[in-house]
Design brief:
Helices cover 34% and strands 20% of the residues. The strands form five sheets. Strands 1, 2, 3, 4, 5, 6 and 16 form a seven-stranded mixed beta sheet that branches. The protein has a six-stranded antiparallel beta sheet with strand order 17-18-21-20-19-22, sandwiched between helices. A four-stranded parallel beta sheet has the order 10-9-8-14, covered by helices on one side. Helix 1 crosses helix 2. The termini are far apart. It has helices at 2-10, 22-35, 45-54, 62-79, 93-104, 129-134, 136-157, 171-196, 252-255, 272-283, 303-315, 408-423, 452-457, 506-518, 523-528; strands at residues 84-89, 109-113, 199-202, 204-209, 212-216, 222-232, 236-238, 264-268, 287-292, 319-322, 326-331, 337-341, 346-349, 351-354, 358-360, 395-397, 437-439, 445-449, 462-469, 483-490, 496-502, 548-550. With 557 residues, it is α/β, with parallel strands linked by helices.
């Protein structure tokens, strides 16, 4: 019996029994598991206390009670058919946000996530998902650690003397500190769900019907739960090409959990992850090479941004090999690796890191989607409409599993839109226009709006403003490294439709400019803003002379 198994799954074996309430408890348990406590108004306070003790009814935060009562009045008839209003598969950024906000809005919500581990697999994951455990957060911590190397050298130009060498670095201490922080955050995500009243399960979740999820725990026990709506949020995972010896390389998962720092590292790829980890390893003292098949890194970014990043990679001592593809990886007797390429001969290294992209997590573990009619695209991503609904009306999907815009804040936005659409009954589309983003290479990149090429392709005639300069932060250091800024302005409307920056603090600066673009700010309004001096940010409001005019009517205007 599904209802009984559900009750047993939540029951605490140590909870004391209450014989005087036993008949009532047995009766109410079945009802609570299916309908929630509100379905039986004859509950006495003693019965409620007893049920909380055995884990059938969990205490709800007071702020959620009113919302839950209001939700129950509008969905009582429907709720009687299901164990949950919403059941979420995946406890990463999008899944947790959608689950806890749906619960706060009054829905009864369950969520299943794999057990925690630093390295993901078909049986390991953890609350917080890629971003918290093996992505954005630990990566940024290592970026901070790597940045000190250049700052130690720069300090000499500002009068500091640290002798013949900079302070020594311990990879082991950094990784240990990082791991402690990530485990703390993983625990916080669990408490966030508890405080929101979400029932969380640890194990593998699989869709076994339009309204059914089967949860298999680590000890192999499978339990079925029914839900009015199922939300898919299992995220994505690293991908690498199938060449001989490919499994001798690592991905970003392993790179963030290395016990020993490799002396030589070859990063294969030219995207976000590739340039970020090239900078991390180089800043922490490894000899780094980066190989990518294009002529410049960061495909899809503005061309001048890409060129600036390529220059800065070389300026930081990284060997850049563009237009090169790996053919084979072999392990040598001493444990080192030999990488055969199509255009750069054989490269000897101690570690090959694959940073060649990510794929949606629909088959590791198998979510059972094809069997029930959920459409997947050629890359395995869940196909959704503008409201994140799949081809099965009762199933939605958010985050990287849909392969729309694979950024953590976008998954959060999609989770909020899901809550409004499904729980509150207010159809809400995620807004993908003018999404700011950053690449934490060194120095970092930040951007919002259109690139120059995108603006031209969209039919805009634009004035382009650019500025290249040495940041004051390194002006006395004797280091040659340029910051770059760019504004793209539509001539017809005077609206700023693109902002791009490479340089210190670019992400912090771009967040504010993202608000300006969302508000439709014009170049005249940028010019009317008084700059903060001295700062790099003021350059965005002091560029007066256009570098060039581009677009279909560039010659006419």
């Amino acid at each position: 019996d599904t209802r009984r198994r559900t009750a047993d799954a939540h029951a605490s074996p140590r909870a004391p029994s209450a014989p005087s309430l036993a008949p009532l408890v047995r009766l109410m348990s079945l009802s609570v598991c299916r309908h929630g406590a509100a379905a039986f108004p004859i509950f006495t306070s003693a019965a409620r206390a007893h049920l909380r003790g055995v884990g059938v009814v969990r205490p709800r935060h007071p702020a959620h009670r009113a919302a839950r009562r209001a939700f129950a009045t509008t969905t009582r008839a429907e709720a009687m058919e299901y164990d949950y209003d919403v059941f979420t598969i995946g406890g990463g950024s999008g899944g947790v946000r959608a689950a806890r906000m749906s619960s706060t809005a009054g829905a009864k919500v369950g969520l299943v996530e794999l057990p925690y581990a630093a390295i993901s697999s078909a049986t390991a994951g953890g609350l917080g998902g890629t971003c918290v455990i093996r992505g954005c957060v630990p990566k940024k911590l290592l970026v901070y650690g790597a940045a000190f190397e250049a700052e130690f050298r720069d300090a000499v130009g500002f009068g500091w003397d640290h002798g013949e060498s900079a302070p020594t670095f311990s990879w082991e201490r950094l990784i240990a500190a990082k791991t402690t922080e990530i485990e703390r955050l993983n625990g916080i995500y669990g408490r966030i769900l508890d405080n929101a009243g979400v029932d969380k399960f640890e194990g593998v979740g699989k869709v076994t019907g339009p309204h059914e999820v089967t949860v298999t725990t680590v000890d192999g026990v499978a339990t079925k739960y029914s839900a009015k709506t199922i939300l898919l949020a299992p995220g994505g995972r690293a991908w690498y090409p199938s060449i001989p010896g490919a499994d001798l390389g690592i991905t970003s998962d392993e790179a963030l959990a290395f016990e020993k720092q490799p002396k030589r590292v070859l990063v294969i790829g030219g995207g976000y992850i590739a340039v970020e980890f090239a900078g991390i390893f180089a800043g922490l003292g490894s000899d780094v090479e980066i190989m990518y098949r294009a002529d410049l890194p960061l495909r899809g970014f503005d061309e001048e941004v890409r060129q600036t990043v390529a220059n800065n990679l070389e300026g930081r001592g990284i060997v850049v090999r563009d237009g090169v593809n790996p053919l084979k990886i072999s392990k040598n007797d001493d444990g080192s690796l030999s990488v055969e390429t199509d255009a750069a001969g054989v490269i000897e290294t101690d570690c090959v890191m694959w940073a060649t992209g990510r794929v949606p997590n629909t088959d590791r573990p198998d979510l059972g989607l094809k069997e029930i009619g959920v459409e997947l695209d050629a890359k395995g991503a869940v196909v959704v409409d503008e409201y994140s609904k799949t081809t099965v009306d009762s199933i939605y999907a958010v985050g990287d599993v849909t392969n729309r815009v694979n950024l953590t804040p976008v998954a959060l936005m999609e989770g909020m839109a899901f809550k409004d659409t499904v729980v509150r009954g207010i159809p809400t589309k995620p807004d993908y226009e003018n999404i700011p983003s950053a690449v934490f290479c060194q120095p970092p990149v930040a951007t919002v709006g259109m690139t120059e090429a995108q603006a031209i392709a969209a039919g805009h005639t634009c004035d382009v403003y650019t500025s290249t300069f040495t940041p004051m932060k390194i002006s006395l250091a004797g280091r040659v490294e340029k910051a770059f800024m760019k504004l793209i302005v539509d001539v017809d409307t005077d609206k700023v439709i693109g902002c791009h920056m490479v340089g210190p603090d670019s992400a912090e600066i771009m967040q504010g400019l993202g608000i300006a673009l969302k508000c439709g700010a014009t170049k005249k309004q940028f010019d009317s803003c008084v700059g903060i001096h001295p700062s790099s940010a003021e350059e965005f409001v002091t560029m007066r002379d256009a570098t060039r005019r581009v677009g279909p009517n560039a010659e006419k205007k």
